[in-house]
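Consider the following input, taken from an annotated entry for MFS transporter, ACS family, glucarate transporter (Peribacillus simplex).
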Amino acid sequence: MKPGKIEKQVELITESQGKERKIGLRWGMGLIFFIIGLIAYMDRANLSVVAKPMMDALNMNKVEFGLLSSLFYAGYCIAQIPGGMLAEKFGSRKIIIIAITWWSAFTALSAASTSYVVLCIVRFLFGVGEGPMYPANAVFNSYWFQKHEKGRAASALLAGSFFGPVIAPGISVAILLLFGWQGVFYSFAILGIGISLIWYIVGRDKPENHPWISEKEKKLICENRSITGTVKKTAPWKVYLRNIRFWAVGIQYFVVIYMNTFFLTWLPTYLMEARNFSLKEMGVAASFPWLAICFTVLAGGALSDIILQRTNSRMKARGSLALTGFIFFIIGLYFAAFSTSPWMNVVWLTLALGALGLPIVTSWATANDLGQEFAGSVSGWMNLWGSIGGITSPIICGWFAQEMGWNTTLLINIIPIGLAIFLWFLIKPDRPLIPAEN
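Applying the prediction step yields:
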């Protein structure tokens, strides 16, 4: 080999060895957030699993039982912005510990409730407890991850939440058979308290405050994150509310979660009523779309960060992936509506929900990009709109299905996606909402 080539090889090897490894304390805490997201989803989903015995025990009808879900989302909705602001003021570690402990306590109280009125209050306060989780996670990600890692950071908690629908029913049913419907709530309450203790031990607001972090990883994060870590003022809400980009990121997320909640609420019923799946077949078929969205949330976060590193364009890294997801969502719903084979219908629905994972994960990364020092407030605002989508979707889509049929409902749900696509061109994620010097 020629001397010049030898020198080049040595240079490449040295450069490779000098790069910081991706595995570090921050990614270990990302794994904890995956578990937190999984438990959070299971805690809110176990109500549907124990519906029949719980309704019998407390003498509830279907309307009364349905109100419990709405009350959860009402509490969840109103806690979004306050949760983000509190995480900015007092630190994400404290707020996350309080949130998990709070919702775990009210999970246990769901089993202990002896009347319907008490249960309504408990489910509302349970929603309040879960509300701060995602905005507080956004604040945590702002301090702990580099600029080009925000997509992967956001995907950890989200992927845990979307993996929940895959395994929650089986686990909840097993507990139900062994310990009764109250045992389901008590078991998940214990899990929540356990993960809050782990977070108390492991979590810190900033890498500068963590005794376990290596100097190399701390330096890497602090030199390459998008915020200074010193600002302690309140988010400029008056300025935000006059900014069309602030409204655009919120309203497009309303559309995203509206569609996600349609699947969450009605997919099992749709498969049995419109596609004649048996209960056993439905249990298998309904898991595929949720496996798909779990995968795309994880892969989409990583891909978004790679694109950002290579192009230094957040519109390409976040916006292009979101738009791609919306387009494939439209394709999936369209062909699902006209599919004659039940299992091909599941394939197209899997494509649709899987594609929705791309705008979900890029929305959270974008909220972090836009908010920077105030990522908690911007994320809380965005998820407030998402919560409204979660409240309205079951009612509106249920009415369409009842009055116009399932296939028409699928096709109608394509229309709001056009609005979300338009709004992404208004978001302009390459610039923060407030310049850093302000």
